[in-house]
Design a protein that fits this description.
Elements: E1 2-13, E2 20-31, E3 35-39, H1 46-53, E4 61-66, E5 69-70, H2 76-86, E6 87-91, H3 102-112, H4 119-128, H5 144-156, E7 162-166, H6 174-191, E8 194-199, H7 202-205, E9 210-215, E10 218-221, H8 227-231
Parallel strand pairs: 3-8, 3-9, 6-7, 7-8
Antiparallel strand pairs: 1-2, 1-4, 4-5, 9-10
Helix pairs in contact: 3-5, 5-6
Length: 232
């Protein structure tokens, strides 16, 4: 089943002679439960694509259909609700609140959305991500890998349909990065979620079900291409 579909999705920054086309018209279909890696060099447009798919950056032209509904026809208030309830975001910078504990950071989006906290679900996430003994620690008392696990748990706390991850292992060493990716794969399988992950790492891309390549704002399906074709 389709969960995200784009029609003629395009993004241009600036106007006139200074205009830059960050994303050429793009038609995509992402299936529910799919793990899709978005690969490209720096400045290729991959983060722009991810941000538009997640309702974070309005397109210049085109549509993003989430479960058949164009999210950019929504009023900003409704779009904000969709972002909170349908998406989980993981970024290279952990964006944790320094004065809050790991557990408080994880449940904060639920509190901001006036939702009841499902303590059984949160405890399950903490256990699944190996954070139970660290739940009361503030971010400064956690390692980089543990902080990223907190950000993953925060992204999963509201049981989102889609997880959007932008270079989530960029600040981690190789071993910790692989552990985080393994945990993400287990998470999406356990909770039947869709994962779109931006990366420039061919080893990370190799773990995905499908790879999308972005080069000079042009998106191509990578089923018939090798990672080295675009990154060499």
């Amino acid at each position: 089943m389709d969960i995200i579909k784009t029609i003629g999705l395009k993004k241009v920054y600036g106007k006139g002679e200074t205009a830059v086309c960050a994303l050429q018209p793009t038609d995509l279909t992402i299936l529910q439960g799919e793990f899709v890696a978005v690969v490209g060099t720096s400045g290729s447009g991959k983060s722009t694509l991810l941000h538009m798919l997640g309702g974070l950056d309005r397109p210049t032209h085109g549509q993003v259909l989430l479960e058949g509904q164009d999210i950019y026809t929504m009023r900003e208030e409704k779009l904000a609700i969709v972002r909170r309830r349908k998406y989980g975001f993981i970024f290279q910078s952990f964006n944790l609140i320094p004065v809050l504990s790991a557990e408080e950071n994880i449940v904060l989006p639920l509190l901001l959305d006036d939702k009841q906290i499902d303590h059984s679900h949160i405890n399950g996430l903490l256990d699944f991500l190996g954070l139970t003994k660290r739940r009361k620690h503030v971010p400064s008392a956690l390692s980089g890998g543990q902080q990223q696990r907190v950000s993953i748990a925060r992204a999963l706390a509201n049981r989102p349909s889609i997880i959007l991850a932008d270079e989530p292992t960029g600040n981690l060493d190789n071993r910790t990065g692989k552990d985080v990716l393994d945990l993400l794969k287990m998470s999406i399988k356990k909770y039947n979620q869709t994962l779109l992950l931006v990366t420039h790492d061919t080893q990370v891309a190799a773990m995905a079900d499908r790879v999308l390549y972005v080069e000079d704002g042009i998106v191509t399906d990578g089923r018939a291409r090798a990672c080295s074709d675009i990154l060499s």
